[in-house]
Amino acid sequence: xxxxxxxxxxxxxxxxxxxxxxxxxxxxxxxxxxxxxxxxxxxxxxxxxxxxxxxxxxxxxxxxxxxxxxxxxxxxxxxxxxxxxxxxxxxxxxxxxxxxxxxxxxxxxxxxxxxxxxxxxxxxxxxxxxxxxxxxxxxxxxxxxxxxxxxxxxxxxxxxxxxxxxxxxxxxxxxxxxxxxxxxxxxxxxxxxxxxxxxxxxx
Length: 203
Fold this sequence. Notes:
Nucleotide Exchange Factor Grpe, Chain A, domain 2
């Protein structure tokens, strides 16, 4: 090979190497550009998905809020209905609280009416007296069943919680502060004094 041909070949080889290097650089730039575009598209796509997720979460929270609000309204309505029912039942109980006692007294009233009717034609006053005493005992039994008892009277120490002193008098039979006479009986309902007895107390 001549010297001129040799130089031409070398020049051609250098040109090829330069072209190859240029192509390599261009390829790298192209690859980076494609990667950048792909990343941008991915970011853009990711941004839309995140927005959709946030919107979905907002809608879910709205639905949960609506459900909780409905539950609250139902519970509030149930509570109001319960209060109304309890108040109505309480009113009914107070209104008819004496029903049991009245029912127990009805037979006593019946016997009193029979005694009054019999007394109009009765010639034997002792029988009438016995009938009235029987009705009185029946009335006492009814009161005892309801928890009504008589406040202790004569011979008991004076107690201002159960007795009302209307008179005082010296007594040789009783110590000072003792009840020596009872003008009107007092009564207790279970452990509560519903009427104090009117008494005379020794001074």
